[in-house]
Amino acid sequence: MQKYTSISIRKRLLAMIILVTFFLSLLIIRLLYLQVFAGPNISSRAYSQWLRDLPLRASRGNIYDRNGALLASSHTTFDIYVRHADIVSEQRCATLLSSACGLDYEDVLEKVQKRGYSEVLIVKSQEKEVVNKILESYEEGIFFTENTTRDYTYGDLLTQILGFVSSDGNGQGGLEAEYNKYLKGIDGLNMVESDLKGTTLSNSLSYYVNAIDGLNLTLTIDLRIQREVESILSAARLENGAKSASCIVMDPQTGEILAMSSKPSYDLNDVPRDDIETLLNLSKALPITDAYEPGSTFKVITTAIALNEGITSKHSYYYCPGYRIVNGVRINCHRRSGHGSQSLQDGLNNSCNCVFMEIVRQIGLEKFYRYLEAFGISTGYNLDFPGEGKGVLMPKSLVKDGDLFRMGFGQSVTVTQLGLINSVCAAINGGRLMQPYFVKQISGESGVLYEKQPTTLRQVLKESVSKDLDPMLNEVVSKGGGKHAAIAGYDIGGKTGTAQKYENGAIAEGKYVASFMGFYPTDTPRYCVLVVIDEPQGAYYGGVVAAPVAKSVFEAIFKVCETPKNENAEEQEKLLEANIELPSFVGMTLTEAARKITSMGLQYLTTGEGTYVKDQLAAPGSMVFEGSVVLLMF
Amino acid sequence: MKIAKFQIKKPKRFRLDFTLLIAVLLLVGFGILMVYSASFYSAALTYSDKMFFLKKQVAGAVIGLIALVTMYFISYENLKKLKWVAMGLSLILLALVFIPGIGVRVYGAKRWINLGLFTLQPSEIAKFGFVLFAAASLAEAKEKVKGFSGIFMTLLAGCLVCLLIIMEPNMSITICVGVTMLSMLFIGGARWKHFALMAIPVIIFIPVLILMEPYRLRRLVAFIDPFKSATGEGFQLVQSLYGLASGGLFGVGLFNSRQKYLFLPFAESDFIFSIIAEEFGFVGCLVLIAVFLVVIIRGIIISMKAPTRFGCYLASGITTIIALQLIINVAVVTGSIPPTGLPLPFISAGSTSLVVFMAAVGVLLNIDKQAHLASLESIKIGESSLFRGLNLFHKKEKLNKV
Question: What single DSSP character describes residue B264?
């Protein structure tokens, strides 16, 4: 047998075996490399495709006011998806979803029938009840993912301060952004084994990491005061047809912000996300971000500096001719006829510009700037809020005498509302510049984790300055230009302000900022209030527009905090009674009208160029206080 | 003469190469198990029957077993007469693929014939049809293989089959047939000079074929760095490597593969080796390759012992195809050569392939049996001769006959 089998064929067959074995050996070496040596490295890449990550959202922390009232919270909602591959009946599925979520059947059916996607979103943010309803009549192919929805208990309250939360759960603006990393918490993980299309395997192992919920914030805000401020401001803005109205209530002893609001605003539960420009404008916390020329409220600071320097005192006297010529330029007092000889107190009561031009001249630029910087006007306070603005001081080298003199009465200098109120607080609390703040406490499940203590940034003034200044400012309210803010039985100190607005370097005709700064009580003040009404229509004097608003705020504070009246209440009440009925001055000449007005114990201002009085403010028949200013229009 | 007497008394006429048979049955059984393991998830999704591929594979194995037994009992020498029938049938089947309504187009290639109840892949049959034809032709040519005329028919048939298969297109089986042809010419004793001549058209054609179908070039690029296009061209290869890599040394255990959850395309057919590697690890792969090597070595030994030239060439041709497909399949799965779809013999899902391979093993077993019978006969001749010289004469005569 095998006689044909030449040596050659056997050799060739043997060669074949060797060749096959050689190739197989190469492949075995390749397998050894891939499976054993490079194995862990390669297979580690495969895990990401084998496991599907179902996020476990950490629930966002709550925000409370200082007394524990809930301001913002989150609750779980569900996004509903369908997975086409798992659907048994498209029609049944669509019927169930449309009836449970109150959606249009055709729309749902269209989404259910969409092919080429592993999952199709049907509807977002559904409540648990809806999900339960769907689960009752269970249908294959419907899936839910947990999500959180942010709820603001009071909607349009603290709008710009709280900020809002984006759909991915991150804070956008305000405290939600500033404290995002504390509020957000840490999302957990739920990894499940799934196939290429994302379908979970039936015998799947899950890898589960718990979510860590976000921390809660306790604010310095007092909800009771805040709510009142919100409604008072809304009303004031409408009444004055103002561009905006804002208010800060602060505790001068601690720097705690008790209330802050600016109008217009919007409902946090219905954020106008579609109109980005409006949203950006309305989201600005004006009292913190925007600097403005404060006007006469700034005189408090000028006075405080002068008192600290010993340049002025209760006993200093000044003369006001109605103007002052500085380097050949005439700067008017608001009363063209002049205030005559006045004490410092009179200067404050009448808000006389000439008095403060003289005072600031004596202080001098160098010192004046040093103080303004010490007050933090141009630096800010490292507030726990995003986008804190700063006031702007002209570069010292460019400041001419005229500029310095204007700064003395609050023009040619800008401050933020927060900067102004905080500087004033330092002037009235014994000279301590406090750090303003919003968040008192951060707490988690295990209790309080962080507690902010009131921080004194620096001692700007001598303690004695406040002792002199506070009673003077009290008199401004009880007798001077701040009368409209006075409340019988409470010693309120304050100062009005009316500033002309500048646009593109020139005075903007008819555009004013009316403001009022007030505090209570006059010894160791606990509440400091700043009201700013931007571009009021009609009357624009701080004493007329802003002071009554501040008064309402104080009334609200006293009511909320059940502050008792002092023993002089009745006496003060009498004083404050609007007891003079205003007659009509229309048709009279200036001299006739002036004689009559002064004889009644009133003051007057004039405007216009005519010979006879055309109109007057307040209107004939209205009740006014003794010493009130009547505006005569010629 | 004692031994001779003993042999006369007990002439062991029954002969079956159990080593080969058991090795092949092990492979087929393991294949059925792995086809189920690799396909139950995708089958449940696609056909709502997780045993869809299992059933087909079992049916293939049963028919294959019948074919194997049948071929074992039919003397392989009879096949020689069928050389023209086999060649003609192969070419007709290959041509049928291109007739609309009969040919089935899957994944952009016309590779299947629809026979109503099931589909048939003609190239699987043509492979062996060609082997049969080539073996017969070369055996007839005898020493003429040294000249060009002796190998002409084999070359012509091989080129025709290759041409029809490349038109489907199916590059991998084309290469398989081509290399088988070269291998058979080599065994048959063709001269080196002719091989060198044959190499020229191959060297010219391969780049042309690659450039003809842009997907081939993309596959080639993806092969060089599969992770670069892990979601595109390189997807399949990357998935295959993931399977291998996560198998490690001992594997994740039967049924525990993760890659079969739709990640690895063709997990139950061309890429089943990756799932095997994942579930049984490097050690499992070694054992599997060892069993294959047993089959291949038995095949070559049978070829060496074959009583006729035809038997020798037929056995070596069949063995070549088994070895070639094993090597190409494992090389593709391990990313050692550019990806091409070629089933793993006896294991991959695919009834045609399974039946034909098992039938081919039946032929191998028959050749082995015939060799045994021939040796018995030669002893018988020796016994009846009075002179050893006569015996030798007979042997010589037989040699001349063949």
Answer: S
Cβ-Cβ contacts under 8 Å for A609 (sequence gap 6 or more)? A634
**How many H helices and E strands in chain A?**
21, 30
Query: Looking at CA atoms only, how far is residue B331 from chain A in angstroms?
Result: 7
The pLDDT of residue A2 is 41
pLDDT in tens, A467-496: 999 999 999 998 888 888 888 889 899 999
Element (H, E) at B177: helix B171-188
* pLDDT level of residue B393 (50, 70, 90 thresholds): very low
B126 is in which domain, residue-wise? Answer: 80-212
Asked if A135 has any chain B CB less than 8 Å from its own CB, the reply is no
* Residue finishing a domain among B178, B212, B246: B212
Domain shared by B270 and B358, yes or no: yes
pLDDT score of A269 more than 50: yes
Residues of B in contact with A20 (CB under 8 A): 293, 296, 323, 327
pLDDT tier, B279 (very low <50, low <70, confident <90, very high otherwise)? very high
Confidence of residue A455 (pLDDT cuts 50, 70, 90): very high
Cβ contact A36–B248 (<8 Å): yes
What CA–CA distance (Å, rounded) separates A27 from A538? 94
Residue B394 has pLDDT above 60, yes or no: no
B179 plus B322 within the same structural domain: no
Residue ranges of chain A assigned to CATH 3.90.1310.10: 52-219
Domain assignment of residue B386, yes or no: no
**Is residue B5, in this structure, part of any structural domain at all?**
no
Is B233 found in the same domain as B367?
yes
ipTM of model over 0.85: yes
Give the residue from B42, B77, B187 with the most A CB atoms within 10 Å of its CB, the best one to mutate.
B187
Q: At what angle do helices B148-166 and B122-141 cross, to 10 degrees?
A: 180
The domain over range A223-267+283-442+452-576 is classified in CATH as 3.40.50.2300: no
The pLDDT tens digits of the residues spanning B68-93 come to 999 999 999 999 898 899 999 999 98
The whole-angstrom distance between A168's CA and the closest CA on chain B is 28
- The pTM score is 0.63
User: Across the interface, do A13 and B303 touch by the CB < 8 Å criterion?
Assistant: yes
Q: Is the dihedral of CA A343, A345, A350, A355 positive or negative?
A: positive
| B64 domain residue, yes or no | yes
Was domain A578-634 assigned CATH 3.40.50.2300? no
Rounded to 10 degrees, what is the CA torsion of B305, B309, B310, B314?
Answer: 50
Phi-psi region of B116 (alpha: psi -120 to 50; beta: other; left: phi over 0): left
Superfamily of domain covering A52-219: Penicillin-binding protein 2a (Domain 2) (3.90.1310.10)
- For residue range A395-434, list pLDDT tens digits in order: 989 988 889 999 999 998 999 999 999 999 999 999 999 9
Query: How many domains are there within chain B?
Result: 2
A197 touches chain B (CB under 8 A): yes
Residue A281 has a CB neighbour count (10 Å cut-off) of 12
Whether the bond between B190 and the residue before it is cis, its omega within 30 degrees of 0, is: no
